[in-house]
Each structure stands twice: as C-alpha cells, then as structure tokens.
Design brief:
four-stranded mixed β-sheet, binds ligand EPZ, elongated, alpha/beta
C-alpha cells in the first residue's frame, strides 16, 4: 500500500495548476445517462473517484474513454440499471445515478451507501424526493430500488440544502411530466454547474444558482460537451500550503469567486492575497493569527476545508474555535494531528485549537480524503519526517498532490509501505 513521506520546513514558492472539480464532474457524468449520444467532457481531474464513476457507467452500458483530462462518454445501449455494492461502498457519489435511471428508464437499483469514516451519511432526502416525484421506492437487501412509469412534477422542500439530494432530484425532475419546484436547494458551485449542464442538454430550469429551482419537465434531452469547473477545495488546500510554510505561491486555472469565504478568512489570519479572473497569489509573512471558523453551506466556509484549517490553526499565535455544523462528527483527523504535537480539545462538533510553536514528524494514518490532505499539510511544517499511510484516500480527490507540492519546493515522495509480518 502506498504511503507519502514528507520532510517539513521547506518554504513553498512558484505556480501550481488547479485541476477540475471532483464534486462537479461526478454528477455531470451521471447526468449523461439522461440522453443517448456522445459527450465530450474536458478539464476532468484524473482521480480514483472519476474512474469509479466511469466503471459504473460502463457497467450500466455506456462506453467511457478517459484520456489525459478528457472523457468521451457514449450513451446509447444502457441495459443494466444497477449500481452494485462493490462500487458504491468505495464511492458514495455513485448514488447520483439513481435519479437519472428512474427518470429515464423507469427503474434504478443502487446499493444503499453505508456510513463513512466519520459517521452515518443518510440518504433519506434523496429517497423522499423521488417518492414525491411519484417513484415507488423500497429498500431491498441493502439496495434502494426505485420504479416509476413516468415521474410527475411536484413541490419538494428540502429539510437540509443537501448537495447530493438536490443533484439527484434535479436529474430526476428534468424528464418528469409537469413542473417541479425544489425549495431550500443546495447552491454549491458544483450544483450550479450541473444545472448549467442540464440546461445545455435542453432542460428547462429557472432559478439556476439559487435555493429555489423551478423545473419544467421535457420529453427528451440531448448530449452536449462541457468543460468542468475548477476545484475550489483543491485551491483552498494549496492556499493553506502556501501560507502555512511562510511561502509565496500562485494558483492558476482556479476560480477565486468560488473561494471568497476561504480567502476572507485567510486574509484575517494575516495572509496577503491577490486575485485575478482565474488566478490567486498568496504571500505569507509567517504571522498566523488565530481565526475561528464555523462550517456552513455555500457560500459559507466549506466543511471540506475544516481539517486543513485546523492544521493552520495548530501553529497560529493563539487559540481558535472550529465548529463543523455540516458533519458534526467529521474530526477523525484530530487524533492524528495530536500525534504530531497539535494541541486540540474536541467537544462534540467543536474543536478548540491552541497554537503551538511547532509540530514534530511522526507516522500517521489517513482516515478520509480531507483528513489525509490535512496530514500532508501538517507534514510540510513538522520538524523531521512525517509518514502518512493509507494515502489511497487522497487519490480519490487530489490529482498527483505530491508531484504538485514537489514542484513548489516541498520535500515529499510516495513509496510502498513496509508491511511488518
Ligand atoms: C457533498 O456530499 C460532497 N460530496 C462532500 O464532499 C461535501 O462535504 C458535502 O457535499 C457538503 O458540502 C460530493 O459532492 C460527492 P450533503 P453530500 O448531502 O452530497 C445530511 C469531499 O470531501 N443529509 O450536502 O453527501 C448529511 O448527513 C466530500 O469531497 C441528510 O440528513 O453532502 C449532512 O449532515 C466529503 N439526508 C448534510 O445533510 C440526506 O439524504 C449535508 O450533506 C442527505 C444529506
């Protein structure tokens, strides 16, 4: 199994190119089930999760070619309307095929995603939404089975502006008979880019980018091409890498507009940040002021940046409070950061971080995607070597992270973990 080894203390400098967004390309790939034809998707990140979604579409009957950063998807002979346990257990986002399958083919069977590293991840809002659109939905042997002759438009008010549920219900509603109203919908840029993609396919959607979506169902849609938006979480992670190492780096192929909550907070900590249409320049003067964050839905501070922020606060000159209101138990990284010498007290979904002079390298273990990013950031500043195991988590959401960091001057490499038998 791969591990990543980081030697701390290098000041990062130079330019890094940000990849396309994982959380934008996955629902767009699922949406290709909604119409036969050929789709060219560009600026696609080379990630494990993209390959998993490609295998899922292949198993359903699409022909998926992934070359460099482009996906060529030919949809036309869908014959198997199932997302099997073996795929769903590796990637929860597989559930995104449920809406398109039941809407287009009147039948979809998707393994019920279990919990994740940090706790239960219910999908009740997905199921309730499909039921409101007239689908008959049952749980059979660990699978969600949804059936419908043709879905019918309905009014759906989400209890929580869930990213996944908004995406799934939206993809179901575009081919439903009549009008669907989704209230309290998610506004994340990844959902807005899905709305834009569906509109390009011929869907009738009003309220794009807002929490109130009105969808007029259509008979058919058409295959189209698309370029995937940049990954705001990868951007945020590299901004922290630059700041935490006292560095001076420029991000290119990014979209600063999507990062305003993160950029504002970084400025509050003392970082100097300039922005352009598709670039961000961060310069750190090594002073890191303690700044509290509370995670929220977009445009608030993203939960996917919470672990990375905690590392920054672990060497700030004072104490800060980090609250996660989206995933209240998303703190599996705390124990590992404490192994590196961080001073963190956790009480339910609130962490108090007392800044320390320095962290010290040690062997640590990744538990999930963003937690592993935080361990790499910690390794960049820790004295000596940090050995990070189970890095398969990071390959799910960061493209060649160690190579990109090396280009910025980090001392980092990947090797095989020595298994002690
Ligand atoms: C998406 O997950 C992202 N994943 C997550 O990123 C991200 O953390 C999350 O949105 C929040 O921004 C993808 O886009 C593939 P939600 P999702 O439904 O859709 C509760 C990463 O690191 N909820 O918006 O699963 C849920 O428990 C990943 O890239 C229900 O109760 O998140 C949570 O508390 C991790 N019932 C809240 O809503 C439901 O049916 C938000 O979840 C659905 C959600």
């Amino acid at each position: 199994m791969d591990r990543i080894v980081v030697t701390g203390g290098k000041r990062l400098q130079g330019t890094v190119h940000i990849s396309g967004a994982k959380n934008a390309v996955l629902p767009i790939m699922a949406a290709t089930l909604l119409a036969d034809g050929t789709y060219n998707l560009d600026n696609v990140p080379v990630l494990k999760d993209v390959k998993t979604m490609a295998s899922l579409l292949d198993s359903i009957g699409s022909d998926v070619q992934f070359e460099n950063h482009s996906l060529l998807i030919k949809t036309g002979s869908s014959h198997n309307f199932e997302a099997p346990y073996d795929l769903v257990k590796t990637m929860r986002a597989s559930i995104y095929v449920l809406g398109p399958l039941v809407s287009r083919f009147g039948y979809g069977k998707v393994s019920l995603p279990g919990g994740c590293a940090w706790g239960p991840r219910p999908v009740n809002l997905h199921i309730e939404g499909l039921k409101k659109l007239g689908a008959k939905v049952e749980i059979q042997n660990g699978y969600i089975v949804a059936k419908a002759k043709r879905l019918k438009g309905a009014k759906i008010t989400l209890d929580i502006p869930s990213v996944g549920a908004t995406g799934n219900i939206l993809m179901a509603a575009v081919l439903a008979k009549g009008t669907t109203l989704i209230e309290n919908a998610a506004k994340e840029p990844e959902i807005t880019s899905l709305e834009m993609f569906l509109k390009k396919m011929g869907a009738e959607i009003n309220g794009i980018g807002t929490e109130r979506l009105e969808i007029e169902g259509v008979e058919t849609l058409e295959a189209v091409d698309e370029a995937i938006i940049s990954d705001r979480i990868e951007s945020g992670t590299f901004l922290i890498a630059g700041h935490i190492t006292g560095g001076d780096i420029r991000l290119e192929k990014t979209q600063p507009l999507f990062l305003s909550s993160i950029i504002n907070k970084l400025r509050d900590t003392g970082a100097e940040i300039e922005e352009g249409p598709d670039w961000i320049h961060i310069k750190s003067n090594e002073q890191i002021h303690p700044i509290d964050v509370t995670t929220a839905v977009y445009p608030g501070f993203p939960t996917d940046m919470q672990a990375q922020w905690m590392v920054l606060m672990s060497i700030a000159n004072g104490s800060s409070i980090i609250t996660d209101n989206i995933f209240e138990d998303r703190f599996t990284h705390v124990a590992e950061l404490k192994r590196l010498g961080a001073n963190i007290t956790l009480d339910h979904n609130v962490a108090v971080v007392k800044g320390v002079q320095y962290l010290s390298g040690a062997p640590v273990m990744s538990t999930d995607l963003r937690a592993s990013a935080s361990l790499i950031l910690a390794g960049l500043i820790a004295k000596g070597k940090t050995h990070i195991s189970r890095v398969y988590h990071i390959d799910r959401g960061y493209e060649r992270i160690e190579e990109k960091l090396k280009l910025l001057g980090a001392e980092i490499y990947r090797d095989q973990e020595q298994l002690i038998v």
